[in-house]
Amino acid sequence: MNRKLSKEATVGCRQARRLFAQAAGDATLGRHLQSCARCAFEYRLFGLQRRALDLAASPEQVVPDKDFFRALRARIARGPELSPTRAEESWAAALLLTARQLVPAMAVLLLVILGATLLWNQPRSATTEASLRPRERVVFSDIYDYPAPTRDDVLETLVAVEEKQNGK
Amino acid sequence: MNVDNLNAHSTVRQAVVDEQFDHLAEEHAPTPDETARARDEDELIRRSLAGDGDAFEALVRRHSPRVFSIVGSFFRRRDMIDDIAQEVFAKAYFSLGTFTLGRSFEAWVAKITVNACYDHLRAQRRRIEQQWAHETQKEDEWFELQMFEVAQERHASAERQRDAAEIAERLLAKLDPEDRLVVVLIDRDGFSVKEVSEITGWGQSKVKVRAFRARRVLRAAMKRLVLSGERMQRSKKK
Question: What's the start-to-end Cα distance of chain A, in Å?
Fold first, then answer.
């Protein structure tokens, strides 16, 4: 019985903070705040937040007066209007949208240009005849009407290449 | 801050809110009175669409307390509240053709109202940023401390209350307009996340995130104020 009573009488910090926003349970909350400095501080912050929200709002319930209805009729009679804020915002929004669309497009374009430049400047690897697929192999003598290289031509070329590599 | 005071204040406010927004709180089967009212409202809308100004004025009279109440949650100045409410009803009049008869006109007008408030909060934030851009951080802190002092005394003089209101406005202007909209509707006016989601058309997750963010910013600002106030008091004692 006593245990049950003490359970009812006290709440944990988590439960107490839930009670901040509720009107009910003030006695339980009050007891908890007296015993818990951290929750008391949090409650103080909570109260100030609410106070700030109230201070920024209208202090009393505003009700429309006669002038309101007259002014509304006049406004309606003037016809639909684009509010200045909307007009300003539509320009700003259009610019923002253009910028938003342009930025990724420019980034892609830049990447393409960079990629192409890198590829273009890459040292070309010697394409050997063996690396070509059969249908891509070209016999130069066929194109330029040169006589086919003889065995000696090939040997001479190989010697020249070797000498070049050895720095002679 | 006195627990009883704060709770009594929120109970009264909640009662006002409940009275005006109870239809949004839960979906229930309409009572005969509500059905008759809805039919009557549909008739007024039909007549307004046919160009009957008096019928539209009857609609405005019926829904103006609610519109004024929502606008009054965000703005303090009477002329501004009047102007925004006018804008809301003018918008409602010109887009009355898009309203589906048989649906809740009150909820439809509430959506227009919240959107109008959001537009004005955004415009106001830009103005405030431009206006106070030249002020230094120290001046800013001084103003906020003043607010803190006034906020602690509920029965401060009208002039001090006005100053405090201005500073509270500056403080809230730091919030993103979407965050501010959500925190005011939930924490001040007592709307649920679902209701705010319905009014604004944003998802419930977005509403929750916005509320969390706004509370975090406000809490940080208030903590700074409380700690500065305590430092000030300690230095006065010395």
Answer: 108
